[in-house]
Design goal:
single chain, alpha+beta, Immunoglobulin-like, C8orf32 fold, 5-stranded antiparallel sheet, 16 strands, globular
Length: 329
């Protein structure tokens, strides 16, 4: 499947800010089932862009806008050819649980076996697992257990944007029983790791198809989970849509949780309040996009008067945290 992706992130400031320093995780990965045909990153105001690979092998682009500006627009355009993953067996043998306990495997996947950031156990998670008899699934082979877990999460949570935030702990979605893909991925990762199954967070895009029952927002980035099973290696599950990862899923980056791989992150110098607008289009063929329809606007939460008068890096970092960590839906 050949997909074209356009991802626009726009910031408007009430007053000019003095400088912006940014990092973005927007380039689709190159892998056996995903061929990156092209990737372009356009900036307004223009800036020199540098790149590096982070500790998980993701492509990261960073830049500095050192002059005053009252808006910043980041436009990422990609073309990606994807292939369907290899068919999975109907089940695995029970010995797979023993293979997961291998000291070598646990050492190789240390980062994806331990709690981190948003993907960690809590009393609310343990209560959810008890209410839905989650641990009973471990009586099945690991592959069947994970497929059942994916289905259980889909059935027990409603999809609704705005209930949680980009920085919400999993207790928020567990309490509301509603959230978005980022929340469901964190819950699944925490459960998998409690079972001793390596699990990682995948940030990317989804070519949404309502005929498949997708409930994801077609105009937003997406997130899902990959788990490691020795017999089949890394495989993807999308608890938002009750499906395995398919050729419609385009992976950009993997990490321990969302905080490792937000679409963009950075800081700026200035006290101006801001508005954030994000637009994502994933299509099979090129088509004209109307800019007013494409950009979805959301306001940065306002602080009190004393907060707006603050100076220094702590204030700048707090403001940018609200702006840059776009919630994946």
């Amino acid at each position: 499947m050949l997909l074209e992706i356009r991802h626009v992130t726009q910031y408007r400031y009430a007053f000019p800010v003095r400088e912006s320093v940014m990092e973005v995780w927007m380039q689709p990965q190159k892998s056996a089932r995903q061929r990156l045909v092209s990737f372009d990153l356009d900036l307004d105001p223009p800036a020199q862009v540098f790149s590096y690979a982070d500790s998980f092998g993701n492509a990261v682009y960073h830049f500095d806008v050192p002059q005053p500006h009252d808006s910043l627009t980041i436009t990422a355009r990609s073309a990606v050819e994807t292939q369907a993953p290899s068919p999975l067996p109907d089940r695995l043998d029970q010995g797979e649980w023993d293979r997961l306990r291998s000291e070598f495997l646990r050492g190789e996947n240390f980062d994806f076996l331990h709690p981190h950031g948003f993907a960690r156990e809590s009393e609310a998670l343990r209560q959810y697992m008890a209410d839905h008899d989650i641990d009973a699934l471990r009586g099945r082979d690991p592959l069947s257990a994970l497929q059942a877990l994916n289905e259980t999460l889909y059935a027990s949570f409603g999809y609704e944007a705005g209930v949680t935030r980009a920085d919400s702990p999993i207790d928020d979605v567990l309490r509301a029983r509603k959230g978005v893909c980022q929340d469901f991925a964190h819950v699944m990762i925490a459960i998998c790791r409690s079972w001793g199954v390596p699990a990682r967070y995948v940030s990317g895009y989804l070519f949404t198809d309502r005929k498949h029952g997708d409930r994801s927002d077609p105009d937003a980035t997406h997130a899902w989970v990959e788990v490691f099973l020795p017999s089949v290696r890394w495989i993807g599950f999308d608890p938002t849509n009750n499906t395995p990862a398919t050729e419609r899923h385009v992976a950009c980056a993997v990490g321990r949780d969302y905080s490792d791989v937000p679409p963009s992150r950075g800081v700026y110098k200035g006290e101006a309040e801001s508005q954030l607008a994000v637009g994502v289009s994933v299509r099979k063929a090129r088509a004209a996009i109307s800019e007013p329809e494409f950009l979805r606007v959301s306001s940065t939460p306002r602080g009190g008067q004393s907060a707006r008068r603050m100076h220094g890096a702590a204030y700048q970092h707090q403001q940018r945290l609200h702006q840059m960590q776009q919630q994946q839906q």
